[in-house]
Each structure stands twice: as C-alpha cells, then as structure tokens.
Amino acid sequence: MFKSVWLVWLKVKNNNMKRFISFSGGVESTAMCVLYGKGATAIFCDTGSEHAEMYKRLDYVENMLKEYHEGDFELVRIKPSKMYKGKEYSSLTEFIKAKQYFPSGGRRFCTADFKIKPIDDYLSQFEEVELMIGLNIEETNRKGNHLKGKNITYRYPLIEDEHDRFFCIELLKTYNLHPDFPPYMARGGCKFCFFKSKKEFRAMVHLAPDEIREVAELEEAIQDKRGKFYRIKNDMPRIRDFIKIEEKNLFGNNSKFYESDTDKAPSCGVFCHR
Asked: Options 2.10.10.90, 3.30.160.160, 3.90.226.10, 3.40.50.620; which CATH number does 18-180 get?
C-alpha cells in the first residue's frame, strides 16, 4: 500500500514539474531537443557576444523543432545582465570593457555571471524544475549540481539511454539539424572565447572578418594600470597585428585551417555550445 501511495505521489509531483532542456546549440543539447523535447522548454543564455552563426542556428533549430514536435516545444532565450560599480551591463562585451580584463581559465566570470547565474535566476521562478543536461554516455564523470537552485532535479537522459556522441551526430544528420558550425566556433560560443585556438582565430580572419575586427577593438580597449594592452591569448600577438599577418596570407594555402576540430575541443562547460 505504501508503495502504491508513493508511486501516485511521485506521478503527481512529476506532472507538476516543469521540464527544461539546457540548450547550447551544440550536438548533445540539440539531440536532447529531438528525443525529449516534446512538451519541454529549451533555454539558451545569450551573452550578447555570440557569433552571428549562433543566432542563425537558434532560429533554425527553433523552427525545425516546433514543426517536428507539432508546436509542443519552446526555445527561451535568456538575456543576462550584470551590475558593476552601480551600472548595469547587458552584454558580456560591455561588461569586459567595464572590468578592464578578459575572462580566463582562472576567472571564468563569462560562465559564472553570463551563463550559470542567469539560468539559476530564471529557473527560480518555478516551484519544481526538471533540467535535462546534454552529457553523453562517455561524460558520466561530469554529472553534478551545475546550478545553485534547490528546486532543480537534474536529469541526464543521453546517459540514461546510453547514447554516445556518434549516435547524437547521426541522429541530427537524419533530421538536418547537425550543427555545421564554421571552424572558428569549435570552442565556446563567444567571439573572443579564450578557449579558441590560434587556428580558430585565423579562420575568423578569413571567414568572419567583421567579427575578428570587433575582437581586436575589444582587446585594444582593455588596458592594465601600466598602460600595457592585454592579449586574449598569451601565445598570440595582439589581434590587430594578427589580422595584418593573416591578411597577407589571404591567398596562401590555408585550407587546413578551415577544418573543424570541434570533436577535439575542450569543453567550455555544459551551458556553452560544445
């Protein structure tokens, strides 16, 4: 009897629980939207500093999945903001200019303030939340409490169903949803992500010249107290100089730099597109 009562309570509790998918635009999170997205809400946290290709993908995926799930699917775009010295900043780019330094491996305020906290705040308005995280069967070691909210029940459906990355890729190809990101988007979604390799910045010069110039302008806007310019990556020249070098090689043999290395890229966290 007690077991039956408990099962009824669990069913009622789950029926009242709002279902969310942590959507980053990448392979696993999109696969979750296909497999488990009916009746769920996908949430994407927009730092205001994403590549133009990411915004195109959001529109495309939303339209495709709404059609696939017969309208019973929603993609919410969270617009974060952050206070600093009495002023509110609604984009990561402007916030970096105010702080006068870039995120790095030791100070990832990009993820903490413009991904994790905004999602936490958004989900806090609901009493009970089920949040599906896109980790595949080969990433079980990354499971954990990714947010602070006490109202969140985490689920890892790809792990539960033993789906690996290869399965997700093949699934998305079937539905014309594979994220064929350009090679400069192998790591992280932001234009100036410190996880980007030199190869990715090189690809930006040739394939997204307007965006690489935005990165150069941001880098030059950041100065330390001695008047020295910060660099996004210590193993590279300043982006302004890097652009000049690469533009001279515009007609050289750069084909290898246009090969995507997404599968080899380190992860920027469960809320970024990797």
From this structure: 3.40.50.620
Note the pTM of the prediction, 2 decimals.
0.84
Please report which confidence band the pLDDT of residue 163 belongs to, taking 50, 70 and 90 as the band edges: very high
Q: What is the number of other CB atoms lying within 10 angstroms of the CB of residue 52?
A: 11
**In this structure, are residues 218 and 97 in contact, taking their beta carbons and an 8 Å threshold?**
yes
Looking at residue 50, what DSSP letter applies?
B
Tell whether the model's pLDDT for residue 178 goes beyond 70: yes
226: helix, strand or coil: coil
Query: What tokens appear for 122 in the block?
Result: 């958004």
At 188 the pLDDT is 58
For residue 31, give the nearest of 144, 174, 183 by alpha carbon: 174
CA atoms within 13 A on the CB side of 56: 7
| Tokens of residue 208, six digits | 């997204």
Cβ–Cβ < 8 Å for 179, 273 = yes
DSSP count for the chain of H helices, then E strands: 11, 7
The residue ranges of every structural domain in the chain are 18-180, 198-262
Of 123, 136, 128, nearest to 35 (Cα)? 136
Amino acid present at 249:
N
How much is the pLDDT for 147?
78
Structure tokens at 166: 């290869």
User: Who has greater pLDDT, 143 or 59?
Assistant: 59
